[in-house]
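2 proteins. here.
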Amino acid sequence: MPKTALIRPPEKALNARPAILGAAIEEFAEQGFAGARMDSIAKAAGVNIALLFYYFKSKDLLYKAALEEILSSWNSRVLTALEAPQSLPGKLLAYVNTYFEFALHESPSWLRLVHQEVLRQGRCSSPHLTKLAQRYIKPVHLALRKIVREGIEAGVFHALDPEHFVYSMNGMMNSYFVSSAVIRILSSHDPWSKNGIEMRRREVTKLIQLALLKPVAKPRSKPGEE
């Protein structure tokens, strides 16, 4: 039998990929991979199910694309901030600011989906995380580690282990959002609100400065100048 040609959708429908990915991120973050439904994603994106499968041949491939959409965007923004010409402490603070700007301006589902994927590793692990982490997270980790090491060598930072400092810094930021449901109970405020995110940004910045930055030594006064 002759092969059936793949019917190309109308030009307007060819621009539906961003809407599909946006709807997929929301659905996967809300329902998890197992509970997410392709028809619900198509409906939320305003497309028919055939067009959804035109772009993404399976639920698993759509899930991978949703994760990659988030991580590639985060990677691009963070590396741009880290590569800007500024002091070593300024680079670390730019990283923190970029993280919280990402949380502030994107849907909570963006960070939530990545956190869910990291936490579900094990018996139900996704085959995608290893490749995506190598491509998008590891370059950022190596850049941060290099900044900390250079700061220690320059005498600007305390002699902390660069690897573990990066883990600790990320833990301070990620745990706030991972624990958002408990924080609501404990504090009666919304961790995802603008005020909540801004407050967390300020406190993380203070902790990093106190833990990492060496105090600037005051020049000794000459005899008779006191």
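next one coming up
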Amino acid sequence: MITIRTIHEQDTEAVKSIMRQYELQFPEFVINYYPDRWDNYFNGSSSSEYWVAVCDDEVVGHVGYLFNNELNLYDGLSS
């Protein structure tokens, strides 16, 4: 059974591994932005949202909504 939940700090390496499977959507330079984004999310200083799909305690997917402060809108991404 797949469950959806907010991302936890221990999920980040699994999410980066999933991202690397989609190198056209997530080139390495884009993946490199995520540690800072996730840190801001975990410490509560971000309006962005990050979720993971988990099956048998394994992260099998992710989705995120990056908040664009300049446009006051969310940009979606997933894999």
